[in-house]
Amino acid sequence: MDHVRSMVGSTPLILTCECPFCARARRVVSSLQEPPRLEGPGRWLVSTESSSYLLELGESGSGTVVRHVGEGQGPAPEAEGLPPAVAVGLRRDAEQIPVHWAEVPVVGRPWRLQVDVRGDGTPTIRRTTFVRQVVTDPSE
User: Fold this and answer.
1) What is the per-residue pLDDT across 7-19, written as a single tens digit (0 to 9) for each?
2) CB neighbourhood size of 37 (10 A)
3) What is the value of pTM for the model shown?
4) What is the C-alpha to C-alpha distance for residues 125 and 103, in angstroms, rounded to an integer?
5) Where are the domains of the chain?
6) Which of 11-15, 94-98, 121-125 has the largest mean confidence?
7) Which residues contact 6 (CB under 8 A, 6 or more apart)?
8) Exposure string (b/e) for 66-98, b if CB count within 10 Å is 16 or more?
9) Strand arrangement, sheet containing 97-102
């Protein structure tokens, strides 16, 4: 995450622009700290502003995730004054995607996970809008 902070820090437009998009970028990047990763086994339903994610992890901390675009819980209080989150469709929505690791989701912060969207082992980092709710083992 240090490289992200450096990139934003070296971009005067993001630091000085008052548009809502740059304001959101500043707020998100400035609040980043390296959160711990989830350890398995377990199931979590993570609801964000714009989507929901069903995550299943095994003992190793890897597993699968299914993203349901547009099934989020709306604007987060932490996003007050920022442009609304947009539910954008991504490749392999509603499909099980292999997950290499996932951060512990924290309500009021964006969430990151490393997935294998392409199916060839090439990792992709996905970052969500602000997390609104986390339900542990939603099948019970």
Assistant:
1) 555 565 666 677 7
2) 15
3) 0.75
4) 11
5) 1-33, 35-136
6) 94-98
7) none
8) ebeeeebeebbebbeebeebebeeeeeeeeebe
9) 124-127, 112-115, 97-102, 63-69, 51-57, 42-48, 131-136
